[in-house]
Amino acid sequence: MSDRTDWVAIPTLGDLIVRRAAAAPDRDAIVFPEVRETGAELLEESIKAGRSLLGLGIKPGEAIAILMPNHIDYAHVLYGAAMVGIRALLVNARYKAYELAYVLENADAVAVITTDVVSEYVDFVPLLRDATTNHDVPLLRQLILLGSSSPDGFIDRAGFDVAADTVTEAYVHELRESVRVRDVAIMMYTSGTTAQPKGCLITHEALVRTGISVARRWHMPEDEIFWDPLPFFHMGAMLQLTATLYAGGTFVTMTHFEPGAALRQIHEEHPTFIFPCFPTITQSLIHHPDFEKTDLSSIRGLLDTGPKESLQEVERRFGVPVVTSYGLTEAGGVIAFGHLEDPIEKRSTTGGRPFRGMEAKIVDPDTGVELPPNTPGAVLLRGVGLFEGYYKDPEQTAKAMEGGWLNTGDLGIIDEDGRVAYRGRFKDMLKVGGENVSALEIEAYLGTHPKVKVVAVASVPDEKYTEVPAAFVEIVPGESLTEDELIAYCKDQIANFKIPRYVRFITEWPMSATKIQKFKLRADLLAELGLE
To answer: At a CB cut-off of 8 Å and minimum separation 6, what does 292 contact?
Structure first.
């Protein structure tokens, strides 16, 4: 238990990299396979990016959009904007033109900073042309491309760099000292029950305090080497980057995740903690032919998500404690990570206790009455990591907040020691012949089949039962599995109403930033069955 008389200073994002440079100027701060920067270099380049943004006429308080895969330029623009009080809209790089135009317009973005590094998702130049010429984005003034090309209609790298000449470094620091921890640092759009994604306003305080809590939860030393391949436009990268820089360590990432390249990077960089986070990544590492040859000896901990049996198998394969998490964007990304020192049963079945400054409770979704330990119900949260609301949407903000508590829409429990465990989304529940069925529960059982690599379960309408489960399955490489074999695996093991009525085998998953898009899988199956 921490000493409750201790304290911690909360820097802004801009102050965070100044602090990191002062603590360890010559230690690598961010590492890519093709480039690495020390703390001092990261600060220098971020100051220059801040000067360029101001030199292009972007003002403190305005919003810019960053549309890139993971790249060192991403970090420079993010921290440069933070230093001078410009909001950074972290755009999902999977967006298509309609979605991109919507978030740019809704967020009141005045500029977009992109790259000519072709993402695993898309070529951004034609995407931006489509989004900005065929849709109305009234406040957008500039398109900026940091790369080696100079397409028409874009300010190129040379133009961006020369803009810095009109602004002094001293003025950047003057603005940095005026940025408040309660100012909005970043905006992230999240999908939910509404027709369009909603813009979450996240302050410097919410992001940095949560990052500090991550560093404390895992006792991150100043020489931590943290490997995380998740996209910078996702909290799974932003929080860990913040935590690592706060601790004084080195953040190791990559522009495009590919399991062979990832294993080479792990082998060469000797990370002390790795964060594959999602089964689609973790299982790709484990089942790659180079896995057994990779030096994993430096790793002290790993975070993944999934059923208990899967997490315990990951722990066996990597030979280090595996933890999981609980959180959502509206709550600063994560409100709890597992404790490395906990027994394996707790680490593989709960996300750990809420961070200091955060509270969680479980209530009856109908009455709002708080429930006793280990009783499933609605998860409510409050504390320092919460977002400031949905941008320009007071109605949805009020709907999400109930008496100061965020209604997450999640189903979960809190155990007798205060650990939070996620049990699924209320909207991810199926109603099969009057029985409430959790898709997560079916996924957990199917994931125990030795030939199943990744599984997702969604509902399909049924005349007799209202809904029935459909399973979408990726098979372990080199193995074979039939629909009949998988259904036979379920019989006499789980209730008949939980057994998938349909099984479809998947080789490529429709993904958001990091999550399988079940609605797309469901739509394809409904079209196949003629049930649109």
So the answer is: none
